[in-house]
Amino acid sequence: MTELTRRLVDFVQENLVPEGDDLKVDETTPLLVSGLLDSLRTARLLNFLRKDVGVPVPAAKLDPDNFRDVATIAALVRELRSV
């Protein structure tokens, strides 16, 4: 697991999994299907990506396909870093 992937997994586990839920997040946990990403949690994730990771996500990339799981988000971040 890359450092970016680990940071994303940790963020999702600590900030998006509801308290009391025993879900253990990994890079392939389906974020949308599982209900972990709703509009408020997506905003928190986007803020984390912008402030802590240093990669703002442009509106054109706000597609559910880019936020399926941590691996997909990590790929999006790598893509945006290379632009």
UniProtKB/TrEMBL annotation:
It comes from Nonomuraea corallina. Gene3D superfamilies: ACP-like. Residues 1-81 form the Carrier domain. This is Phosphopantetheine-binding protein. Coiled coil: none annotated.
